[in-house]
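Section 5: illustrative case.
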């Protein structure tokens, strides 16, 4: 048990920033990113014995983070839609939070807003490839798709992103 706790602490120390940044890019919300990071490492703690290939720990953790982000996002969307449908209270619009230094850049805000309008799959591929600099192989493992599909989907996602930010090239 002591070895397991030490291993979880080591994995957290090494990967929590990657998970948090992925979640932040995915949600554009510090609170949601923190929730996703916490839930990811909780799931990791429960599933640590299931990791078969220690060389793929990074992609395994990022796969958990991606699935957790999708699950949480889906649950929140369902909850918001139910609240609207039932008419109990109007859907609350998220009040903009103080922007971090990197978000002060007007271009970044435009890209982030455009990212949030993309489908989950497109957004995840762009985050993995462009913002987190994961290899095609790592991205394929995280998304559980082929490397060829990563290449094609990344190209198409980038074209959609360029179109959304007004840079058709």
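Designed sequence:
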């Amino acid at each position: 048990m002591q070895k397991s706790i030490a291993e979880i602490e080591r994995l957290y120390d090494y990967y929590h920033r990657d998970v948090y940044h992925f979640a932040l890019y995915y949600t554009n919300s510090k609170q949601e990113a923190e929730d996703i990071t916490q839930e990811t490492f909780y799931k990791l703690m429960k599933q640590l014995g299931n990791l078969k290939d220690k060389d793929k720990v990074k992609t395994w953790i990022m796969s958990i983070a991606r699935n957790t982000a999708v699950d949480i996002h889906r649950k929140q969307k369902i909850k918001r839609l139910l609240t609207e449908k039932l008419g109990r209270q109007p859907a609350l619009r998220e009040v903009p939070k103080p922007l971090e230094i990197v978000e002060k850049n007007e271009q970044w805000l435009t890209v982030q807003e455009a990212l949030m309008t993309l489908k989950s799959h497109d957004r995840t591929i762009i985050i993995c490839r462009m913002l987190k600099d994961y290899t095609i192989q790592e991205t394929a493992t995280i998304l559980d798709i082929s490397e060829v599909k990563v290449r094609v989907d990344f190209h198409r996602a980038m074209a959609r992103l360029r179109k959304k930010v007004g840079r058709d090239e």
